[in-house]
């Protein structure tokens, strides 16, 4: 099945391992992700002020690309697949605003007069939703190397689940990543703060504050004996993994905790070693994977 | 946290006087004006939320991950707006809010508090105010930060 795919900015830089592992492992399940031509930044955050129409243009322009791809039969689906939680939220919410408000839709079309008028037909989904629709048994069937003995703590953060009405799963007790990890053969570790804020964009100007929030989450994973945290957002990844030097400075007893994207563990379990991209992760998850006998020597 | 004592500065005269109080720890003056409607109406229009629904249960504040850094709890911010007190725009809280929407899923009255915080930020930002500046960052920090962090930070906190 060919899906339009919107990568977003960070998947081309600090989260290349997320994209490479997602394309390979989705492909192995027959989900072909075709990148949108001429895509632009989604804006990363949805504008919550009711009169802020200007910031809906960027996400809607991407949705115009989706409709064009479907029209030109480059894809079979009108559901655009996202990987980054923030892109998912921003595209989905902008889509909802113009669909529900004919006046705003008309204004958006007027402002983007040189674009094909947006028909409101695109749907925005996250890869985890597509996998759930496919069925966990199909995912399990594709597994070549079950992640036996690997203790993973799923972490959702905010925008995969909230605000209510725009999440991919239950706001209080999401299970989609747990089910995926079980299908891959891993042991799921539940942490109470799996839906708690990671510190988000405060990492730019208040990195110690963000690091404190991240520490609370990581500390629960350590306490529960997890081997690694698994997640789906490049900003959460940066705050939970990239900021561990700041966390260690603030909390002397904190050591380290590897953080990986869910697609990297899919690629590993599917035997797509070259697409796992673990060399980009810091802290390095490879020592613990080797310890669990899940990694070939050359990786 | 907002636990300071309330000191009454002026005698209360409900018809004409403005009642001034200050909350010691926050330093924010509390002023109840007879005509408080316009500020509240502005915030309600910009946020799309009906603030009369709030009955100050505090569920938003209890679930908020950022309260350690706030001078006013989120529920108090709502109370300030209900009372038409524009000085809420001077509060740290509106900038500390991380827009995680925990309050939105917890509010028993269906108020999206994150929308209210955004409206308050916008009221400041639309008067040529930037809360953060790229100049404050060292070049090596700029190189290290992923785009997703920088763009979201500037989108939320600058005009």
Tell me about this structure.
The complex is a heterodimer of chains A (299) and B (159). Chain A is an alpha/beta fold. Chain A has 13 helices and eight strands. Chain A folds into two domains: 2-128, Glutathione S-transferase Yfyf (Class Pi), Chain A, domain 2 (Up-down Bundle), CATH 1.20.1050; 146-278, Rossmann fold, CATH 3.40.50.11810. In chain A, the strands form two sheets. A four-stranded parallel sheet of chain A has the order 2-1-3-4, with helices on both faces. Chain A has a four-stranded parallel sheet with strand order 6-5-7-8, with helices on both faces. The longest helix of chain A is centred in the C-terminal third of the chain and has 17 residues, at 207-223. Chain B folds into two domains: 6-127, Fumarate Reductase Iron-sulfur Protein, Chain B, domain 2 (Orthogonal Bundle), CATH 1.10.1060; 132-159, no CATH class. Chain B is 40% helix and 8% strand. The A-B interface holds A 8-10, 13-15, 41, 43-45, 47-52, 55, 84, 86, 158-159, 162-164, 171-172, 196-197, 199-206, 209, 212-213, 234-235, 238, 242 and B 45-48, 65-66, 68-69, 96, 98-102, 104-105, 112, 114-115, 118-119, 122, 132, 136-137, 144-153, 155-157.
Give the helix/strand layout.
The complex is a heterodimer of chains A (299) and B (159).
Chain A: E1 2-6, H1 16-28, E2 32-35, H2 57-71, E3 79-82, H3 85-100, H4 102-111, E4 123-126, H5 127-134, H6 136-142, E5 151-154, H7 176-183, E6 187-188, H8 202-205, H9 207-223, E7 228-231, H10 234-242, H11 244-250, E8 259-261, H12 262-269, H13 286-291
Parallel strand pairs in A: 1-2, 1-3, 3-4, 5-6, 5-7, 7-8
Chain B: E1 6-8, E2 19-23, E3 29-32, H1 37-47, H2 59-63, H3 74-82, H4 93-96, H5 102-106, H6 113-125, H7 139-144, H8 147-157
Antiparallel strand pairs in B: 1-2, 2-3
Helix pairs in contact in B: 1-6
